[in-house]
Fold Sigma-70 family RNA polymerase sigma factor.
Amino acid sequence: MDMLIRAQNGDEEAFTSLVLQYQNPVYNLCYRMLGNAQEAEDAAQETFWRAYQAIRRYDRNRSFATWLLSIAAHYCIDQQRKKRITTMEIEDWMEEVIPDHTPEPEKQIRENEERQSIQSLLSSLNPQDRAAVILRYWYECSEEEISQALQLSVSAVKSRLHRARLRLAQQYQSQQYAMTERIRDESPAF
């Protein structure tokens, strides 16, 4: 909190410390929203620039992380709109895949495919639904915090999350079915 107060009073070193503290969560949100590392990096930089410009107006009664992530989410939503991208249980397959640097090629390939699959599924959602899902399941924001971050009512957040879970489950099942069919078609007949 002291760092935040100093940053609000114009201390650039304090703001730099906040950037260092929050750069990974902001980048990760941007990457999940945009699906491209370079675009995510640009979006994260823009997020911090916007936060820097607005830091004096930040309300300390609100969670700083939620405020910062909402800036990132809104920026990413705007970027997606500009690009005109159309876009089982979620808890079971949306766990963060933590890279293991042990040289196990099969495991690394499987983890990479899993990350790509999750990114593909997220890309099927509209930008606000995607933001709600990411904030809920990766950042464990409450429905109230998501409501504040996305400027929606709590009931709208609940509805978006429910609709997104259904869509993701349908997409996941379709992916699994397609993969099963592809494996069956590629298998030699005996």
About this structure: The two ends are 68 Å apart (CA to CA). The chain has one domain: 2-186. DSSP finds nine helices and no strands in the chain. Residues 154-186 form the longest helix (33 residues).
